[in-house]
Amino acid sequence: AVDLIDELSQMEGFNYTFSIRTDGKNGNLNNVTGEWDGMIGEIIDGSAHLAIGDLTINSQRESAVDFTTPFMTLGISIVFQKPQKADPSFFSFADPLAFDVWKMLAITYFGVSIIMFILGRICPGEWQNPYPCIEEP
Fold this sequence. Notes:
It contains four helices and three strands; from the N terminus they run ααβαββα. The protein is mainly α. It has two domains: 80 residues, D-Maltodextrin-Binding Protein, domain 2 (3-Layer(aba) Sandwich); 36 residues. Strands 1-3-2 form a three-stranded antiparallel beta sheet. The N and C termini lie far apart (79 Å). Belongs to the glutamate-gated ion channel (TC 1.A.10.1) family. It holds the Pfam family Lig_chan-Glu_bd.
């Protein structure tokens, strides 16, 4: 597991420190208080970003945190806090492109429109009236 987190940190460019739990608890839900203890509790309250250990995947833990696909058959896995889904904003349709792309698209649209207007005024082919009986087209 140490080799895995070391390789991940090199690939993604982050630093890490290990914190070994002295109580040996992986994470159990207290049904009275609704709070988690152990590694799962640290992830939920934000004092840890992820946990590596011999965690078994059960329905209670699965509802609280995300598990990776087990990379060994020994039950060792990495868990992290489930991301909270945010409501889409009014302009969420614009999220696939960066603001600079939208800005350049608008500038290009208006620039081409102005150039087409000017060329239409200058070009003599645009002056011909296809309906000669009507003086004002």
